[in-house]
Structure formats: C-alpha cells, structure tokens
Inverse folding.
C-alpha cells in the first residue's frame, strides 16, 4: 500500500486534465474545523439575474488515484472509514492521498467532481449538472472565521470571497426553510468535544454549539447528494 502511494505524483499532471472542466479560475473556498488536515469539498456561488444562485459543490476525486483491485483499494475497503480519536486519526487512505493529492489544499490544482445547481429564490433546484473538473481552492477557512465574517466581526481583503460567503449565508436560510417544509428534523444538540491534556488524558468535555457556518456547508452537501 505504501509503495503504491509513493508512486503517486506530487502534483496534478497535464495528462490528468483530459476531458475535465477547467475551473481553476472560479472562486472557491473550503470550510473545515481549525484542526482539520484534509479538505474534501469546496463550494462556490454566483448570483443569477433572476435572484437565484448557481451553487457549485466540488468534491475531491479520489477515484482518479484509487484504482479498483489495487492494494490501496483493498486496504481502504478493509478499513471502511477513517477513524477519528481524540488527538489522533487513523486514515482510511495513505496520507499521500488523504492529506495531499485528494485534499483541496489552498492554491493547489486538485481533481474534483463538481455538482452545479441552479437554485431559485424559494430553494428549488431548477437544473443541475455534474462534471469531472479541476479546481484551485481560493481560500481555506475554519468554521469560526466564516462565522465571524457572517456576523460582521471579521473583515477580509478579497471582496469576491466575502460577497460569496454572505451570499451563501443568505442561501443557507432559504435551503433550511425549504427542507424544514419538506419534513427535515433539525437537531441543535451541540457536539461534545474532548479537551485533551498530557498523555492523551481527557481534561474536560465541552459542548460545541452549531454555527451558521456549519449549516452553510451541510445544506449545500445535502442538496448536492440529492442531485
């Protein structure tokens, strides 16, 4: 498995781009926990003339590197998931994939599947398209940073990204209302977070309350999955 992972190039090659939509000029960003080491999905948004929004969800294309029947594939199948423990993660895939070539690192060309959804002002998907693509992530955000932008507590220099964050924050409310009307149950329980001390000892357990920025990504992913 490790031998196969070492054979993966350190960057996206020109030959990898055949048949892919080149979206490297599109403004995209990722939102993840501050401690995250891999970034699986990026988002983009463009306001449409009719008041709707074209949302893009760009998901790392693992299948380009992980071929069926290989040692890496069989090991990933045996592990089934990445296992997250306090202060440690046991990855499903070698770090060369999970933390590098299949992680949407800011400023790096990365291969993706892109789901583009045209969503009207009521939250209805008018049409969608799914493409194999290549993106270059414009900005890596932590949830707390996006929350501060939404609440007006943080200013960023790139006006395009700020406007996109605020547009998606408004869209989140539209999508939530649409899904609640359709029968979605929205739990606001707060996630338990273990505060670690020396020697992997748990020092405290705190409740992490849901942020608007969590929902922003969550609802876009739900819509992409439905499409």
């Amino acid at each position: 498995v490790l031998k196969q992972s070492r054979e993966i190039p350190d960057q996206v090659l020109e030959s990898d781009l055949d048949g892919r939509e080149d979206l490297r000029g599109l403004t995209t960003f990722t939102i993840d926990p501050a401690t995250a080491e891999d970034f699986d999905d990026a988002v983009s948004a463009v306001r449409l003339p009719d008041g709707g929004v074209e949302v893009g969800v760009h998901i790392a294309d693992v299948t380009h590197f992980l071929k069926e029947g290989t040692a890496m594939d069989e090991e990933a199948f045996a592990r089934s998931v990445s296992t997250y423990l306090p202060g440690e993660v046991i990855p499903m895939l070698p770090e060369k994939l999970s933390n590098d070539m299949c992680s949407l690192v800011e400023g790096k060309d990365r291969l993706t599947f892109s789901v583009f959804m045209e969503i009207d002002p009521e939250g209805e998907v008018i049409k969608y398209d799914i493409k194999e693509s290549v993106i270059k992530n414009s900005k890596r955000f932590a949830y707390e940073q996006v929350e501060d932008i939404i609440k007006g507590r943080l200013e960023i220099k790139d006006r395009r990204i700020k406007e996109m964050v605020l547009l998606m924050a408004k869209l989140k409310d539209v999508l939530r209302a649409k899904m609640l009307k359709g029968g979605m149950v929205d739990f606001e329980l707060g996630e338990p977070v273990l505060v670690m001390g020396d020697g992997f000892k748990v020092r405290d357990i705190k409740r992490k309350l849901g942020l608007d920025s969590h929902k922003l990504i969550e609802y876009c992913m739900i819509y992409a999955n439905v499409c």
